[in-house]
Write a structure and sequence with these properties.
Blueprint: E1 6-15, H1 19-30, E2 35-38, H2 43-48, E3 54-56, H3 57-65, H4 70-75, E4 77-79, E5 82-86, E6 89-93, H5 95-99, E7 103-105, H6 108-121, E8 125-127, E9 131-139, E10 142-149, E11 152-163, E12 181-196, E13 206-209, E14 215-219, E15 225-231, H7 242-254, E16 265-279, E17 282-283, E18 286-288, E19 294-295, H8 303-324, H9 328-355, H10 363-378, H11 380-390
Parallel strand pairs: 1-2, 1-11, 2-8, 5-13, 11-18
Antiparallel strand pairs: 3-7, 4-7, 5-6, 9-10, 10-11, 12-15, 12-16, 13-14, 14-15, 16-19, 17-18
Bound molecules: arabino-flavin-adenine dinucleotide and P-hydroxybenzoic acid.
Residues 15-21, 38-41, 46, 51-53, 108, 130, 133, 164-166, 169-170, 269, 271, 290-291, 298, 301-304, 307 line the site of arabino-flavin-adenine dinucleotide.
Length: 396
């Protein structure tokens, strides 16, 4: 016999325990607002999932305000510039000198671990391995979310739903299609990302592009490198052997000098390059955050940073609502978040097209890219404009 559904009431039901959902839950908790976080995958999976690694200063400051940046401040790598290489020409972009802001290299999975640790220490409701999450009733005064919790059917009534369940989540589908406008752009290439037990070739990031395509040298520590290779969209993560990957990375990053340190490949990920955005980012008492609402190509490392900004924005609006009953900030959430998301889309697309040529790139394409590189490296105004967008200053 099917057991009676578990009945839970909470002010806010958060769907998804990625950076957006976990930070939102943390900020609500700090404002004395209860919530329940529902995560489809297991804790081990979400804590091991290798994704982003570059945190803008605004993101680091948000994590500090949330009281979860202790390890980040101890272990994160502070960066003040990066190298841009085009066909062997090298240029260092000193973004901290130009903007006064730095970026931190600290794996997204580390941010997730720190947020989960804070949530569990505080005893906040955070359920993993939750199946069949559905937003069943979305009304003017709240919603009902149904799911299977520890094998039992559950019914969660709440005043607000925060859809933090990523691009493939269910929350966006709870909005009537006629109420949403979605925009998509797919790039004619992808990234093969590897995590390797190899020291980075350079203490700063190196973005290199040329006839053979784009490559990025990033890192997670002084002994773990994070590298990306532009590949055709049809490739899989296993198409190339480790040796082939290292050889192509060395060709693109060092011109084949053999200077790129190699080591065991710990993880591979094929990242399609695409842009997606849905408007509006709220529907009644349902709010969409992070990848549930917008996807940017990883070229400019904006995905995680936009998700964090959405979480801070919604948490602030909910805190005002619960403290004063005023809903102006809640009503303004979508417009504010979308302005930032579109700015993130535009810079991500500009940086993607600066660094990549698609299949069938023409001499005209190459000439344009050289001109963009020359303009960026030859003008302090252009470099400052680029730097302000790269560190995230221009979105605030
Ligand atoms: P997330 O996708 O991180 O989290 C959503 C959570 O919801 C997941 O834990 C998921 O399991 C859960 N969920 C999904 N459906 C559910 C359901 N029905 N019920 C309950 N839970 C559900 N960004 C960068 O800036 N730089 C990068 O280099 C970079 N690399 C990336 C590599 C890959 C392979 C991917 C997929 C993304 C990458 N990103 C990168 C973007 C990425 O970092 C996202 O922007 C970031 O994870 C967004 O955070 P969230 O919005 O919290 O979504
Ligand atoms: C990363 O380290 O994952 C990373 C860094 C910078 C980028 C993209 C990805 O532009």
């Amino acid at each position: 016999m099917t057991p009676a559904p578990l009945r839970i009431h909470t002010p806010v039901c958060v769907i998804g325990a990625g950076p957006a959902g976990l930070l939102l839950a943390r900020l609500l908790e700090l404002n004395g607002i209860d919530c329940v976080v529902l995560e489809r995958r297991g804790r081990d999976h979400v804590e091991r999932r290798v994704r982003a690694g570059l945190l803008e200063q605004g993101t680091v400051e948000a994590l500090r305000r949330a009281g979860v940046a202790g390890r980040l401040d101890r272990e994160g790598l502070v960066h003040e510039g990066f190298e841009l290489r085009l066909e062997g020409d090298t240029y260092r972009l000193p973004f901290t000198k130009l903007t006064g802001e730095s970026v931190w290299m600290y794996g997204q999975q580390e941010v997730v671990k720190d947020l989960i640790a804070a949530r569990t220490t505080a005893g906040g409701a955070l359920h993993f391995d939750v199946d069949d999450v559905r937003v069943d009733r979305l009304a003017g005064d709240g919603a009902t979310v149904t799911c299977t919790l520890d094998g039992r059917p559950a019914e969660i009534t709440c005043e607000f739903v925060a859809g933090c369940d990523g691009f493939h989540g269910v929350s966006r589908t709870a909005v009537p299609a006629a109420s949403l406008t979605t925009s998509t752009h797919t790039y004619p290439y992808a990234w093969l990302g590897i995590l390797a037990a190899a020291p980075p070739m350079s203490p700063e990031l190196v973005y290199a592009t040329g006839e053979r395509g784009f490559a990025l040298q990033s890192m997670r520590s002084s002994t773990v490198s994070r590298l990306y290779l532009q590949v055709p969209p049809g490739e899989s993560a296993d198409t190339r052997s480790d040796e082939e990957i290292w050889a192509e990375l060395d060709l693109r990053l060092t011109g084949g000098s053999g200077a790129l340190p190699t080591g065991p490949v710990l993880e591979r990920t094929l990242v399609p390059l695409r842009s997606f955005i849905c408007e509006p980012m709220q529907h009644g008492r349902l709010f969409l955050l992070g990848d549930a609402a917008h996807i940017v190509p990883p070229s400019a490392a904006k995905g995680l940073n936009l998700a964090v900004a959405d979480a801070e924005l919604l948490a602030g609006a909910l805190a005002v609502w619960y403290a004063t009953g005023r809903r102006a900030a809640l009503d303004a959430y979508s417009a504010t978040a979308l302005r930032r998301a579109w700015l993130g889309q535009e810079f991500s697309r500009w940086m993607t097209e600066l660094l990549h040529t698609g299949p069938g790139g023409t001499p005209f394409d190459r000439g344009l890219r050289r001109a963009r590189f020359d303009h960026l490296t030859g003008s302090t105004a252009a470099a400052t404009d680029f730097a302000e967008q790269y560190v995230g200053q221009s979105r605030r």
